[in-house]
Each structure stands twice: as structure tokens, then as C-alpha cells.
């Protein structure tokens, strides 16, 4: 059988991720592969670490990119930090809070759920009550930017509560990193993970992770071995940690070139400017969507600029509209997920996708297809 090389049609990616990759990042990906213990590569890894520290606004020495997608970053936090029998307060206001619960259960922890309506942020009051009711809890886990609904939670207030009750915070920043204000050290976040494919304008497959000194101490004080070999950070640190780099697994060399370039571009733009760009593009998109008669799932006060969930208008065929956008305009928007499946579309403005030309294309294409 003779197969032709795979040649995907270029698309504009305005779904929940992956989002548009910056052309310079794609170029970086095609640079010559070198050994992952080559001194040049090792020097680049030091820069990647410093750039992740910048993006997270942290000086945590334990800051790395896990060689796998955001889900592995999530798992890295739970398998390393939570030991059997430990109580974790888990906030669930969408799909990814539920995944956190599943992670807790799989490592033998006890999940105490704080539930909020889909499309609303995590209730700080309910979390305060849960912490008061469970003085033996060891962790508070929540999603900063819930990609399934487009709701932003108050990470600063939630982490302040965690500190007050002396529990460690575990924060999902897969969609928020690079798109929303996020200050790991200032807000006292203990364990945080993200993904390369959303507001960082990078290809999928890597997960920036950072642990505070308190989280590292918790890991070092474990009385049971970390139940995953690959994600055991006591082993990974031999490779990412300072000093001698020893082999743990073969690093995804070219993907790390891409992450380096994407974070370099973020640093060049400046974090605050990137947050402001996402906000400005959201305002433009919002005005156009409202003109088209579409209404948002999330109240304005807690709406994510980079993930716009809007109700599917009456009479519109969900699948047919998304197919027409893809086939006629090479434009991808996201379907609803979980409770919002068939009820909402998720329009992403993440990273390099948060540009005026994308907003204009999306509004014009939706107008064509819907009217
Ligand atoms: N957490 C959130 C909030 C996400 O949006 C996603 C992916 O969409 C994940 C975790 C999982 O990341 P990945 O799909 O890269 O494994």
C-alpha cells in the first residue's frame, strides 16, 4: 500500500484547545533533533524552567514541564502529594473538577466535594465552610479556569483560605496560564499544572508544573512510594533538577524547543499585555456575538475571556453549524461538553488565536452559517 504524506488543511482553531500555534513555534519544532543530554539541550532546558517560572510568576525551584499533556500534570500533583486515606476538598463546577475527584479516589484519598452549578465560579463561601467542617483535610483542589463552561474562579481568595486553614492548594491552570492573571507565589499556590496547547500558543503534549517548598516537603515526607513510576517527581528531579542531569526518560526534544519558543514569545509580549490582549479580543467577540443574538452561559463577572461559552440558538443544528464552519471556513469552534453537550458552543480565544483577524473571521462565518 502506498500512502501519501499526511497534509492537514490549515485551520483556524477557536475551540477549547488545541488553539492556533504561533508560526515561530511551528518553526522551532522543525529544528534538528539533538540528544536530550546534549549540553546545548540541557542549557535550553534551564531557560525553559526560568520561562515557566516567569509564566507562573514563581521562584519555586521545583518547576518543570511534564513530558505529557495537561492530564498528566493533573495526575502528577495528585499521585505525588496525596497519600492513601488523606482528605482532599475538591471543588466541582464542571468536567475538570470531576476529574480531580477521580484522581483523588484513584490514589486512595478521600474526596470531600464542594459542588457549584455549571457555568458559575467555585463558591468561596462554600469552600470556607467545607474547610471549617473538615479540619483534618490536607488539600484544597480546584480548577482556576473551567474549560467546560467558561467560568473563572477566584484563585487568590481560594488559596488564601487554604493558607488560613493550613492545607495545601492544588490548582488547575490548564486554560488560565497566559490568559488570566495568575500569581503563584503572591497567591501562595502550592501545586499547579497547566498545558502547552491553550493560551501559550504551543503544540499539545507538555504540562508545566510547579510545587512550592511546602509541597516538596510533603512529597519528601511520604511514607508510601509514589504509585506511578513515570510521574514520580522524586525520580524526575534527577533530570530536571539542578546539577547533574541523569537519564529518566527520553525528553520530547522538539516539543520542548516549541515550548521554549512559545514561552519566549510570551515573555517578549509581557504577561500583563497577554492578559489584556485576551480581554480586548473577548470584548470584540462578545459585542459581535450579542449582535448575532447569542447569549453567554456565564455571567459577565466570572466569564473567561479565552473561552466563550454561548447557548446554541433555537432552530440551529449543533453539528451542522460546526461542520459548515469547518468545511466552508476552515474554522473550528468547540462543542459543548458534559452537561452543556448539545446546548452550547465553546469559542476559544486562546494564545495566538486571540487576534483581531480571528474574531472577524469567526463573527462573519457564524453570520453566514446561521442566517
Ligand atoms: N484541565 C482543564 C481545565 C482542561 O481544560 C484540560 C483540557 O482541556 C485538562 C485539564 C486536560 O488537559 P489535556 O487535554 O492536555 O490532557
Automatic annotation (TrEMBL):
Q: What is this protein called?
A: Alanine--glyoxylate aminotransferase family protein
Which co-factors does it depend on? Answer: pyridoxal 5'-phosphate
For this UniProt entry, the molecular function terms from Gene Ontology, in alphabetical order, are: transaminase activity
Mind telling me which Pfam families this protein's record contains?
Aminotran_5 (PF00266)
Key words, A-Z = Aminotransferase, Pyridoxal phosphate, Transferase
Domain named Aminotransferase class V: which ranges? 33-336
Tell me the PANTHER family matching this sequence: ALANINE--GLYOXYLATE AMINOTRANSFERASE (PTHR21152:SF40), AMINOTRANSFERASE CLASS V (PTHR21152)
What family does the entry list? Belongs to the class-V pyridoxal-phosphate-dependent aminotransferase family.
Give the InterPro entries listed for this entry: Aminotrans_V_dom, Aminotrans_V_PyrdxlP_BS, PyrdxlP-dep_Trfase, PyrdxlP-dep_Trfase_major, PyrdxlP-dep_Trfase_small, SP_NH2Trfase/AEP_transaminase
Q: Where is this region: Disordered?
A: 1-21
Amino acid at each position: 500500500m502506498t500512502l501519501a504524506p499526511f497534509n492537514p488543511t490549515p485551520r483556524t482553531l477557536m475551540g477549547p484547545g488545541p488553539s492556533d500555534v504561533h508560526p515561530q513555534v511551528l518553526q522551532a519544532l522543525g529544528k534538528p533533533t539533538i540528544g536530550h543530554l546534549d549540553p546545548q539541550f540541557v542549557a535550553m532546558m534551564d531557560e525553559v524552567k526560568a520561562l515557566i517560572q516567569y509564566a507562573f510568576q514563581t521562584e519555586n525551584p521545583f518547576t518543570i514541564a511534564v513530558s505529557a499533556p495537561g492530564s498528566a500534570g493533573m495526575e502528577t500533583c495528585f499521585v505525588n502529594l496525596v497519600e492513601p486515606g488523606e482528605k482532599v476538598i475538591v471543588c466541582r463546577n464542571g468536567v475538570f473538577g470531576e476529574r480531580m475527584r477521580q484522581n483523588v479516589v484513584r490514589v486512595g484519598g478521600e474526596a470531600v466535594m464542594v459542588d457549584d452549578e455549571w457555568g458559575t465560579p467555585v463558591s468561596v463561601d462554600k469552600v470556607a465552610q467545607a474547610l471549617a467542617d473538615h479540619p483534618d483535610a490536607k488539600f484544597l483542589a480546584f480548577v482556576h479556569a473551567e474549560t467546560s463552561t467558561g467560568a473563572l474562579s477566584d484563585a487568590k481568595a481560594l488559596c488564601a483560605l487554604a493558607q488560613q486553614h493550613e492545607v495545601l492548594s492544588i490548582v488547575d491552570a490548564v486554560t488560565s496560564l497566559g490568559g488570566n492573571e495568575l500569581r503563584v507565589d503572591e497567591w501562595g499556590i502550592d501545586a499547579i499544572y497547566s498545558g502547552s496547547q491553550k493560551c501559550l500558543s504551543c503544540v499539545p503534549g507538555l504540562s508545566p508544573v510547579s510545587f512550592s517548598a511546602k509541597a516538596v516537603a510533603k512529597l519528601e515526607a511520604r511514607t508510601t512510594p509514589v504509585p506511578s513510576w513515570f510521574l514520580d517527581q522524586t525520580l524526575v528531579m534527577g533530570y530536571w533538577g539542578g546539577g547533574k542531569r541523569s537519564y529518566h526518560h527520553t525528553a520530547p526534544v522538539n516539543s520542548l524547543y516549541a515550548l521554549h519558543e512559545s514561552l519566549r514569545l510570551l515573555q517578549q509580549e509581557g504577561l500583563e499585555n497577554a492578559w489584556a490582549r485576551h480581554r480586548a479580543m473577548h470584548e470584540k467577540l462578545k459585542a459581535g456575538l450579542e449582535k448575532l443574538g447569542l447569549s453567554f452561559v456565564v455571567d459577565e463577572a466570572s466569564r473567561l475571556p479565552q473561552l466563550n461559552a454561548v447557548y446554541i440558538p433555537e432552530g440551529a443544528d449543533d453539528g451542522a453549524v460546526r461542520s459548515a464552519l469547518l468545511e466552508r471556513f476552515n474554522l473550528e469552534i468547540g462543542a459543548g461538553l458534559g452537561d452543556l453537550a448539545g446546548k452550547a458552543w465553546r469559542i476559544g480565544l486562546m494564545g495566538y488565536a486571540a487576534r483581531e483577524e480571528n474574531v472577524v473571521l469567526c463573527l462573519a462565518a457564524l453570520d453566514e452559517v446561521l442566517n
